[in-house]
Protein 1
Amino acid sequence: MGVDRGRAAWRGRHLGAPNLTQTGAKLVRGAETLHPFTNFAHAKRAQTGANCGPGVEVLHPFTNFAHAKRTGTAPARRHDGTVGARELAKLEAELVDCRACPRLVEWRERVAREKRAAFRDETYWGRPVPGFGPADARMLIVGLAPAAHGANRTGRMFTGDRSGDVLYAALHAVGLASQPTALRIGDGLELYGTRITAPVHCAPPDNKPTPEERDNCRTWLEAELPLLAPTLRTIVVLGGFGWQALLPVLANAGWQVPRPRPKFGHGVRVPLTGPRPIEVFGCYHVSQQNTFTGRLTPAMLEDVLAAAADAAEIQRPAGAG
Ligand code: SF4
């Protein structure tokens, strides 16, 4: 699927979904943690200060490219000189206003209002969480959905929860992240050649999106993938949900996905031909359910990440796992 078709698809799907900025909602200034994205019109409106969404304080969006580059959210231009990063930033700016799934909108905002006691002094993000990492990534990690008090709180994928602790520690161990911890936007974390996204961008109750919500959100992945395709070489899918969500997107985007579709499994590798050859890797999800029980160990995770990084020909520091 071409970029225009992809964008047209999600525009069509999300047309009519209330847009916070269009409804006159306001954005709060002065939040301690800022969320970098680059919708100039939105950001300009935000600078007037105000509230966004019913009873939900949200963080202040802005357009500081230097900061965005540091945090990895709106990265540098692509190797091939296109303006993919700018397109990706626009897509993210649209995404964070999405309200297409009523159940998830209600849940993400309720969690943001009520908060967990340990985070009661924090301002939750409480909105769709965009992908994290450079637009010219060679490797994409596809998870499931933001955690209620993790990414739904911090506004960055896998940031601020136990799953993220495991994932970023492994990414750092294999030379794909600048540091092993992910606490908040602006903590200095940078990803190397790697981007993280999700098939569902809003926190679902019990970490279980419905099939309808998965299908709603697929349009965002369908729009994101063509923007990443010029440099993308490998995709690591964390868990069966992401696997089931991703394969149809790849097929629609022109990759030759075998029938019957390859089954998810830890360590599974599926090379696909299409617009460009890519290889899809299966990996157990980094949920506590898997990591606490030893179903997924740090070594198992690092092995998959390192193999996918090498297949993508990402240069990693000597001695990295
Ligand atoms: S889950 Fe996806 S489609 Fe549904 S409201 Fe969130 S961003 Fe929109």
Note: The first strand starts at residue 35 and ends at 36.
Protein 2
Amino acid sequence: MAEARVWHKAVFEVLLAGTFLSCLLNPLMGSAQAAAKATGVSKYVGPGSCAASACHGGVQPRSVSSVLQNEYSTWVVRDAHFKAYRNLESPVAQRMGRLLGIDNPAASPKCIACHSLSVAPQEKARDFDLEGVSCESCHGPASAWLVPHTLKGSTTQKSVALGMFDIRDPARRSEKCLACHLGTAEKNVDHRMIAAGHPDLVFELDSYSAIEPAHWKPAADPYHDLRLWAVGQAIQLRESLEKLARHTQSGSWPEFSDYDCFSCHHSLTKPEGSWRQERGYEHRAPGSPPWESAHFTVFRILAKEVDPAATRQLETQMQRVYEAASDWNSSRSDVGEKALAASETTNRLGAEINQASFDQTRAVGLLQAISAKAEAIANQDTRSAEQATMALDTIFLCYEKQAGSHPAVRAAIDALFQEVNNPSAYSAPRFSAQMRKLSAAIRDSGISAH
Ligand code: HEC
Ligand code: HEC
Ligand code: HEC
Ligand code: HEC
């Protein structure tokens, strides 16, 4: 009885608000809500539940509501996640299936785990077809907050309290994206899959957030993207250390995808022309594939600014991981333990960075500090050069929006992208020279913290 009254009051409020009426009268939603009440746990309702034109299925963005309301259309028309399931039928996916002994990738748990909203029957509030990576893949199972979040006075905070995934928190968002863009114990892209045709999983939170067609309003904080980048680096380093530790316990050790791809996949030259021989092989034997540490190379520069003592500890721990993992005679358990120790320190630093302030002073400091490490970054590995390029791009974009453009600096960053365009042909001396040009351009353009 009391419940019915609340329900009527809710409908009445919506009538007054005059907006989400057709959402609310959608009978599916009533039953989903009932299911959530019965179990106390939110379950999945499928993307169709969000598609009504008065909910998230509008064609044009609306300005009267706090959200755009055309999220569903953006997702269907422009978002790669919508196509993720159908792409399992592409010729490349079919050939991958043949090479890996998978009859039908579109039905294999090995593939649909990341390419669709694939959940166990008991986690569903109602039946729905497999589609791409959909709303609840990122926003969490919706049955408990589906109706409440359409009501007048609802806010993201209130929905989060009811179990909506807090995708706006950079650390949580990073974890959510990386579950598919780096992998977990349950879902994994390894070198066997890559060699069979799967793209390598390269991810960087800010760049990937920027490539995804936005179905959200831009953040008010001008340094929001810088924070995304910074926190994303920490979480990604932590997750790749944990992935390494997991692989030491699995049947496929050493797992090539933990290593620098281009230490194996690069073109060869005569000894006189080899920059690798000229550079040497610090902390490993000549010719051993190094553990891929690109997420540390740039992150350490940022971390040092936020917490120098913890960063020194992490540097020592990371060197141990690098040395042990880059020597295939090391014992697995030794590598695993070292990776987990470093991951703990990274986690602590990540939490501090999520609390740190990001402003023009920090942006300028980072531009200068990263470009000053030309040689160290260039010599580390190809992916480190790639990470540094993306970082400089992100930081400079934030700075430009606030403080005006500097074409010479922009041109120097674009030239860095040219250097990492074809990773198999990467040259550390060329990248390093270009970084020095960038450093000079920053100095000459008078960019300063104030
Ligand atoms: C449930 C797994 C899953 C989650 C969670 C996920 N993604 Fe994806 N993402 C994929 C898959 C699979 C693809 C490849 C789709 C295709 O092209 O078939 C993809 C593709 C992308 C692309 C397109 C890349 C390109 O090369 O064009 C971007 C950008 C992206 N994801 C960003 C994100 C961000 C940002 C997040 C977190 C907010 C995220 N993804 C969360 C699985 C996921
Ligand atoms: C750990 C999660 C994960 C698993 C498991 C996974 N994928 Fe993917 N897949 C991704 C992501 C993420 C991308 C997008 C990569 C990018 O663009 O950065 C992707 C991209 C692809 C693409 C390229 C799509 C395009 O846009 O052309 C194909 C094909 C593909 N996957 C097939 C498969 C097949 C077949 C399987 C099973 C054998 C599989 N994937 C398993 C995460 C996964
Ligand atoms: C790949 C992950 C991903 C998928 C799939 C996805 N979203 Fe989102 N969504 C995000 C992220 C990330 C944000 C927050 C961006 C920000 O605020 O910086 C967001 C924000 C939103 C917002 C704005 C929330 C607010 O508080 O301002 C709405 C509404 C929304 N999504 C609805 C949807 C709907 C409906 C679908 C399915 C049609 C969907 N999303 C699919 C990642 C995703
Ligand atoms: C320890 C050395 C090593 C590392 C590290 C390594 N690979 Fe490989 N990769 C190989 C070998 C060996 C083959 C098999 C080549 C053949 O059959 O001709 C291979 C095959 C491949 C193939 C298929 C060959 C082709 O021409 O299409 C791709 C793609 C590939 N690797 C990508 C990667 C990526 C991406 C990474 C990093 C995430 C990586 N590899 C890391 C050794 C390595």
Note: The chain has a mean pLDDT of 89.
